[in-house]
Amino acid sequence: QLQLVESGGGLVPPGGSLRLSCAASGLLLNYYTIGWFRQAPGKEREGVSCISRRSGNTNYADSVKGRFTISRDNAKNTVYLQMNSLNAEDTGVYYCAAKDRYSDSTWARAGTYDYWGQGTQVTVSS
């Protein structure tokens, strides 16, 4: 059974950090492009970051460049999203998603991903 499970969310003050994890079962993440998305209340789901299958090319939304880092641990079959210098605009439910292909032009399109986790809440507030 293919499953993605996110963890690591929580409440953090502005300027703080969190590391999200996306653990997989039923698929080897190294063979999949993994995207991180987030959705704030009343807003559309937006692509935050992506790490491509095999080569590990990375992409970031402009709003998180220089603050977020995506990485993959093949031995643990887990993808991480290190989030630093968090601000209120980063609040939302964060999802990881997987697909077996990669394109630099479509990495942030949620509709191109085949598998999704259940999400983890990130709240940035003092």
Can you lay out the helices and strands and say which pair or pack?
Layout: E1 3-7, E2 10-12, E3 18-25, E4 33-39, E5 46-51, E6 58-60, E7 68-73, E8 78-83, E9 92-99, E10 115-116, E11 120-124
If you had to describe this structure to a student in words, what would you say it looks like?
Helix content is 0%, strand content 47%. It contains no helices and 11 strands. A hairpin with a 4-residue loop joins strand 7 and strand 8. It is globular, with a radius of gyration of 13 Å. The model has no long low-confidence stretch (mean pLDDT 96).
Shape: globular
Helix count from the secondary structure assignment: 0
Largest sheet properties: 7 strands, mixed
Structural class from helices and strands? mainly beta
User: Could you tell me the strand content as a percent range?
Assistant: over 45%
Oligomer state equals: single chain
Ends: how far apart? 40 Å
Helicity range: under 10%
Give Rg in angstroms. Answer: 13 Å
Mean pLDDT: 96
Helix-strand pattern, N to C?
Answer: EEEEEEEEEEE
Number of strands: 11
Low-confidence segments, given as residue ranges, are none
